[in-house]
Amino acid sequence: MTRRLLTGNAAAAWGARLAGVDYVPAFPITPQTEIIETLARWFDGGEMRGRLTMLESEHSMVTAAAAAAATGVRVFTATSSQGLLYAMEMIHAVPGWRVPFVLANVSRGLATPITLEPDHNDVLAARDSGFLQIHCASCQEVHDSVLIAYRLAEDARVRLPVIVNLDGFYLSFTREPVEVADPAAARAFLPPFTGRGIEFRASRPVSQAAAVLGGSQYSYFRYETHLAALQALPAYAEIAAAFAEAFGRHHPAVEAYRSDDAEFVFVMIGSFATKARDAVDRLREAGARVGLVRPRLLRPFPAADLRRHLLGKRGIAVIDQNLSFGKGGVLHAELASVLYGEPGAPLLASFIGGLGGRDFAPEEFYEMIDVTRRAADSGRAPEPRLLYTAGELREMRKLQAIAAVERHEDGAGKP
Amino acid sequence: MYRIRFHGRGGQGMKTASCILGDAFFAEGFEVQDAPRYGAERRGAPIFAYVRADRAAINERGIIARPDLVVVADDTLVTVPAAAVLQGVGARTVLLICSNDDAATWTARLKRDCRVLTLPAPAAPEAGQAQAGVGALCAGAAAALVGVIGRAALERAVAAELAAHGAPVVARNTAQALAAYDALAAHQGLVSAGGAVDAGARAPVDWIDLAAEDAAAAAPDIHATATSLKAATGLWRVMRPVIDHAHCHKCSWICSTLCPDSAIAVDADHAPRIDYDHCKGCLVCVAVCPSHAIRAIPERGAAGAVP
Amino acid sequence: MNEHVIHRVRDLPSAHLLGAGTAMCAGCGGLGALHQVYDVLGEKTVFVNAAGCMTLLANYPFTPFKGSWLYTAMASAPAGAQGVRDALDVLLAQGRLPPAEDLAPVVLTGDGSAYGMGLSATSAAIERGLDFLYLCYDNEGYGNTGQQSSGATPHAARTATSAGGRGHPGFKKDLFAIWAAHAPAYVATVIGAEPLDLARKVETAIGLKGPRLILALAPCPTGWDFEPAALVDVGRLAVNTGIFPLKEYRDGRITHTRIPRPRLPVEAYLSTQGRFAHLFSPRRDDAAIAAIQAQVDRYWQGVA
User: Fold this and answer.
1) Yes or no, beta carbons of C90 and A93 under 8 Å apart
2) Domain presence at residue A219
3) Given an 8 Å threshold on Cβ–Cβ distance, is A211 in contact with C60?
């Protein structure tokens, strides 16, 4: 086994290649495009068997992906940001088909304003769709998660599509050492897909995705999709254990870093969590008992694992790289819902940071722990805090001056 | 609260009936809720609409489970389970059926302890003509039975609901509504307002914990073919096509090919056969048969239509 | 396969594949066309359906199909067909699917999808050379929601969103020409009222590979306001007045399979439907009728 430098995009493509994917419906969008370009090259060169088809939109791409999955082949596709949103009708429609496939989403902030750098509002817009979600913090994790995602999606208890999420730029375009799995080992971990009754065949006609009339039937099918998503929790634990056994890397549903004896814990998802890991080490060196808890699975939500890791702590700094307008951080609300009313529930301090790829300074992590500590001492949760400095606002003012917003505001700019 | 359901077929004006009655209640100072039941309703298919009226604000919503009054525009629907005409009909429910059979006949037929009244059924349409709407008639009848709606309020409600269709339509429907209202004058106030479900002595709810089931069963997939044959769309029929085999030229294809519903097959001897379980009564076959060997007769009274 | 099995009306199937008992309206012209098309296509098909009236064909647990079906969405049925076709091709190429188990994907949409929301997905499927049949039941409006005007609504037709005295101000889009401009394998117009013409065109389509459109005018008693029994009359008048030309495109050439002689005046067709009633009553709108006639005349002048 050799390690090589790969971008997150290349790691995702390698995951798909090693999964023996049969079919890739594709559409380009920054910062995802390298994934489909890489796969296209491999199909052309014969390194992959099957077909890559360029669709004319992400909506069509996800339709084709699910339709091919419903026909019984192993399908991979990828998108990002506005593309995920353009596909959103189908993102919500196809989990109900109960067909497995994997979609890599390269997170990127949503318009408006349009931007290229990452945050998680795109993938969180798919939170309630029925797609399962695995969030990665490194290029190695991207590679590994694609293989794990297929086992999960195809598990008889689950049979739902899975999103593997990687942050744009910070993972997609960043090279890191990645141990690419040996093809035979990958095949042993993930045998070729046989359809297992998911099919369109002349001799076995089926009408898939039929309509219903009435809330009672609808409730049954929708709740079954929910129950299948919940069954992905035990299934994931088994699959992650099998992966660890085969490849020596363990990817639990919730990563807990130095949190066992911690008083205060960061909770966040995605690639910036490795910066939090670093901050934990520095804070520990400074004598603070701090840890990191990072959900890799966001759907299904690993409630029991999170309770196990977080109950009894003094305070949690929840860092949301997303923003639900008029409410705040999504992860904060999700976490509160599983901790509220539990004995030993910690104080939650909400921080919004990393919007559109805005970086975190190490000092900000330290400050967040101070804020959380003071709040825990006082017993009152602080107001949610946007990570945004006076210096940033000064720079913003300069830009606004160039954009002549003041003149526009008072009408003086008009002739 | 008054809870009233109108049952009929798509195209018979049940939504109009509920709107007219709602308007009339409202004009008399009631709080009102009226709505059609939306679904895959098509012309001829069983459909219903409902009205709630109360002196106090109405918090109840959705389908009326325990009606005080059920008005049936088309008596062929009464005993059709899919039409759910009798759902929730109890001892204090008044059941008004537009029918040429009398109330005693229906009471004997239904074997229910509800009070049954009848109004003469509207005349069957001519072949090729649409069934005329009877919404105003049904609303007029209901207005009389509840006993709290004046003749003038009813008249204004008909005019308000149908004004967009022009004066002749308003006049025809007003006459219909008032005739029904007057015909039931002897029963003014027969329908009384019902109460609410008692929270103190309620029936238990049998909630269950839904289990995760195999995805093949828990997806909306149909693994059988042509199961649509289990849907009795023959119930939609108001007019019935009847083949006169003595005049059939056995062309073997025209009626069978042009029937949009695949409801006419041709036997080995080239004789067409109509599948009455599914024929919706569009009468395309009547129109296209070159030898005029298919005629239309009213479904009401046709063999097997009414028990 | 260029051989037709269906030469005469007597060759038309007399037992029908499509199951009765669907939720379509009595006298539905779209269902009339579908049931004839299905008899020729057969059950080794997977219908990939877009949102429209026919969404309710497969209404759990009921389906009229003897073959397969997949519901997608209004905009992307051709992409669904792409996914199915691609997957079957991959399975065939890898020997994972016996050829006898192969299926033909058939996109089934109304005009709302075919002329509007689904046009981008359709155009792309054609440009990719997808081997599929597209069956459009064109009832000239968003019928399932109560007949609002669509890209297929003819000029002057009253719809739920063009209920004024002049009806729809726009003109019906030429979907046949849009398809033909892509140079696909086959494009044909059909109508249920002309079963032999329809069956022969579907047979021709089956014998070809690549993108193929069967565009069926679907007279709609509910949306066009006529008695269901008049379905076939209305359809024949659409053809005999020249308003709906029966034609096909193949190998770069357009052939009219029926040239109405004599061509009846358009009012013979318009006057059968409530949606055009304002052209005749309370006052006859000679100018509007003449304009529609002139447009039809111009079309046929261009047909050699």
Assistant:
1) no
2) yes
3) yes
Which of A53, A59, A206 shows the shortest C-beta gap to C68? A206
Question: A410 in a domain, yes or no?
Answer: no
| CB-CB contact of C132 with C211 (8 Å) | yes
- Kindly list the residues of chain A whose beta carbon comes within 8 Å of any beta carbon in chain C: 22-23, 25, 49-51, 53-57, 59-61, 63-73, 75, 89-90, 93, 200-203, 205-213, 217
pLDDT in tens, B45-58: 889 999 999 999 99
- Using CB atoms, which chains have 3+ pairs under 8 A with A? B, C
With b for 16 or more beta-carbon neighbours within 10 A and e for fewer, the B84-110 pattern comes to bbbbebeeebbbbbbbeeebeebbeeb
Contacts of B256 in chain C (CB under 8 A): 14, 16
| Helix (H) / strand (E) containing A35 | helix A33-45
Domain span at residue A300? 254-392
Distance from CA of A281 to the nearest CA of B (A): 43
The interface predicted TM-score of the complex, written ipTM, equals 0.96
- Spell out the per-residue pLDDT of chain B, length 307, in tens: 999 999 999 888 999 999 999 999 999 999 999 999 876 667 888 899 999 999 999 999 999 999 999 999 999 899 888 889 999 999 999 999 999 999 999 999 999 999 999 999 777 555 445 556 799 999 999 999 999 999 999 999 999 999 998 999 999 999 999 999 999 999 999 999 999 888 888 889 999 999 999 999 999 999 999 999 999 999 999 899 999 999 999 998 999 999 999 999 999 899 999 999 999 999 999 999 999 999 999 987 665 543 3
Kindly determine whether residue A96 and residue B219, on different chains, have CB atoms separated by under 8 Å. Answer: yes
DSSP letter assigned to residue C279: G
Report the CATH number of the C9-301 domain: 3.40.50.970
Q: At residue C34, does pLDDT exceed 70?
A: yes
DSSP letters, B197-244, are: PPSTTPPPP----PPP--HHHHSS-B-SS-GGGGS-GGGG-SEEEEE-
Angle between helices B135-146 and B14-27 (to 10 degrees): 40
Same-domain status, A21 and A167:
yes
Nearest-by-Cβ selection for C31 from B40, B229, B261: B261
Q: Is the dihedral of CA B257, B263, B268, B272 positive or negative?
A: negative
Cβ-based contacts of B40 with chain C (< 8 Å) = 23, 56, 59
User: How far B53 CA lies from chain C's nearest CA (Å)?
Assistant: 29
Are A211 and B220 in contact (CB < 8 Å)?
yes
Domains of chain B: 2-187 (3.40.920.10), 232-298 (3.30.70.20)
Question: Encoding tokens for residue A233?
Answer: 């929790």
Stretches in chain A below the pLDDT threshold 50: 413, 415
What string of DSSP letters covers C115-158? Answer: IIITHHHHHHHHHTT--EEEEEEE-SSBGGGT-B--TTPPTT--
User: What CATH number is given to the structural domain containing A375?
Assistant: 3.40.50.920
- Could you tell me if A167 and A220 lie in one domain? yes
Do A26 and A161 fall within a single domain? Answer: yes
- Best mutation target among B250, B259, B262, B270 (most C Cβ atoms within 10 Å) is B262
C87:A90 CB<8 A: no
Q: How far is B225 from chain A (nearest CA, A)?
A: 7
